[in-house]
Amino acid sequence: MYSIPQLQDLINKQIAESRYPSAPDELYEPIRYIMSLGGKRMRPVLLLMACDLFDGSIIKALDPAVAIEVFHNFTLLHDDIMDKAPLRRGKQTVHTKWNDSVAILSGDVMLVKAYELIARVDDKILREVLSIFNNTATGVCEGQQTDMNFEALDSVTVQEYLEMIRLKTAVLLAGSLKIGALIGNASPEDAEHLYTFGENLGLAFQLQDDLLDVYGNPEKFGKQVGGDILANKKTFLLIKALELAENLEEEELHYWLNEENADPETKVRSVTDIYNRLGVRQLADEQMNEFAEKALSALEKVNAGDDKKKALRHFAEELLVREN
To answer: What DSSP letter does each residue of 255-294 carry, written as one string?
Structure first.
């Protein structure tokens, strides 16, 4: 059984050894740049762990695992343009370092490269793996568009929000696990159980992200705390607060959502205080734990050794017990 750091090292080595043409430099250098920025490599690690769960060949799974990471970074390249984000993992985003056109075109090539790598699976599972990858990629795009649509809506329900994060975040974790399971020769039932595990884990992970954005320690979280509040982003916390707020809290919340010249620190502090009074942090925690329990329940149904499933349980726990 491989450890998580061992799998991360394998993926990083494979990415570092990836070769792209030297010209045109403006097309390929941004790909080398964004792929070198690192990260936890969570999605490809899950693919390799799923393969290892059934004693499959990690070597055979490496190219598809890197494909998942290339695809994920392709989505980040385009998301950063849409969000006008200046930084990614503490470094300049590609569209900032170069320009929007370069970022779009380099991202397009990354999608092609992801397909090239994913197609290296054994022929007997190629059609099924491509089907999972296609459905996953489409879901991620649908989730991103839905998230953008939310910006123009006055009202979004919790269920609509959960469906959006299922598509935008959770299906890529789920798809990675299912592809890894198929490469490892898992049964269709076990592959589906792992998909359910990943989907619920992804939902719990995004809710944890919502909580950390408000209540996290910025030094440990790695992002600006309160960024979602400043952007009036429709997270679980804000949607639930709008649903529960009455009288004074409702008036205060709408004031901060509509005040264009608010002092950032005051706005974050005031909205966080409203969240505390309404108890939405606890509600988000409860919803997150519900998804985490569903994930672990699905993992228990997988027909594999307890020692190997223990590694995935540990991965899930580490993912959901981030510092705050």
So the answer is: HHHH-TT--HHHHHHHHHHHHHHHTHHHHHHHHHHHHHHH
187-324: CATH class: mainly alpha
Architecture of the domain made up of 1-186 = Orthogonal Bundle (1.10)
Per-residue pLDDT of the chain (324 residues; tens, 9 = 90+): 788 999 999 999 999 999 999 999 999 999 999 999 988 899 999 999 999 999 999 999 999 999 999 999 999 999 999 988 888 888 999 999 999 999 999 999 999 999 999 999 999 999 999 999 999 999 999 999 999 999 999 899 999 999 999 999 999 999 999 999 999 999 999 999 999 999 999 999 999 999 999 998 766 554 567 889 999 999 999 999 999 999 999 999 999 999 999 999 999 999 999 999 999 999 999 999 999 999 999 999 999 989 889 999 998 988 887 655
Decide: 312 and 197 in contact? Cβ < 8 Å: yes
CB atoms within 10 A of CB 279: 12
- 């809710």: which residue's tokens? 207
